[in-house]
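Researcher: Structure for this, please.
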Amino acid sequence: MKKLLWLIGFIFIGVFGYAIYFLNAAMPAGTGYSAKYVCSQVFLANRDPVIVFENDVKPTHPLFSIIKCDVDRKNKTVTSKGFGFWSPLTAVYREECGCTLAIDTSREELLNQAKGIMPRKKGNSDPVWPIGESVEFSEIPAEVNRKKLADVIEAAFQESKTETLKNTQAVVIVYQDKLIAEKYENQFTASTPILGWSMSKSVTNALVGILVKEKGLDIMKPAPVASWRGAEDPRGKITIDHLLRMSSGLEFEEVYAPFKDATHMLYESKSMADYAESKPLQAEPDKKWYYSSGTANIIARIIQDSVGGTLSDTITFTRERLFNRIGMHSAIIEPDASGSLVGSSYMYATARDWARFGVFIKNDGVWNGERILPEGWVKYSTTPTPMAPMGEYGAQFWLNAGEKGNPGNRKFPSLPTDTIFLHGYNYQIVAIIPSRDLIIVRMGVTQDKTHWDEEGFIRQVLESIEN
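Model: Predicted structure, token format:
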């Protein structure tokens, strides 16, 4: 009996010890995620922190049930702690930058880093969208079945009486470059910036395209990453093209859980690009396709180095060369603590501005008669990378092309093969369908795919417009 009690005691100590070890490793991801997310939603999107935490954060993982967020409106910070004391992390809001986790730095250092940043321009409310913000729904083309489309959009917001499961925040539909329908959840309006998560990657692609056109950046040459320049470093063969097509061969786990690369990079690293650049090769470049947020942040660092090297330089470039030219005046790509934009994940923009970007891509990188992206860039970006098995990925864009030689084997069989996607966590989507002259934007925070049928939603929108 005594031996059994000793055994039970050892087992209890072992289980308890592992639980403490696991929580200690997991807690920074939990406190980092909640501090950063709540900070951006409160100070950038002007949302209620209680609603944000209960609707968006808490359902993400059981870990968040033991985390508390403290919002300091005077200093514009949010600090999260486990059990009120464990692994505190603070996110700091800066007016033209959004929010950043203060990892290995202080609020004062972050504020100094952001001095002199170019302010956002205000949009012109008079011209008709997409050039301005004026919308005239009375001039919808005759082939659009208004009632059918309205019913589809309404259904996208409908919840059960007891739970918020879809958590749709905004829907915008653009047909023939005209905004023909939109709807917003009660907390949101046409002027609310909304997080796009990995939709940010497609905007990062466009910034590279601008550098190709305006500065002669050669994406087929080895990527200009200083830590890869050693004569014996096999990573020196990686090109920007490989990075754009998620075919670099770099080791990276795109898994959002404790001990995983994506989580460690986003919530525990001062420099996300440095973290991703430090990873070894697991395959020869262009021999394996693997979706990686790490590569997008390496690209973002390359952009920064190409335009001057500072946070101010980079934000000025994004605004002067892209956002202001196509009317995306709400857009902000938030930086990490090192001052490099988080090109993988942290862009906020209104649903209308996300739709503007869709129009811009559908029209081959031309806006209001001005070519902004180089000729052939959109074709390159939306051509399936060879190692993607179902032709589902190009260069920072998701596709629906299907398997080479067998287009019927594709991710969304009921949608056109030319459909192009910006796609983000929680089922954020900008679907661009050139053959139908259609852009579909859905923003939301859906935790479980069983509660949101994105293929069905897009198909029903298509069915409401006679082909």
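Researcher: Any notable elements?
Model: The longest strand covers residues 86-94. The chain has a mean pLDDT of 93.
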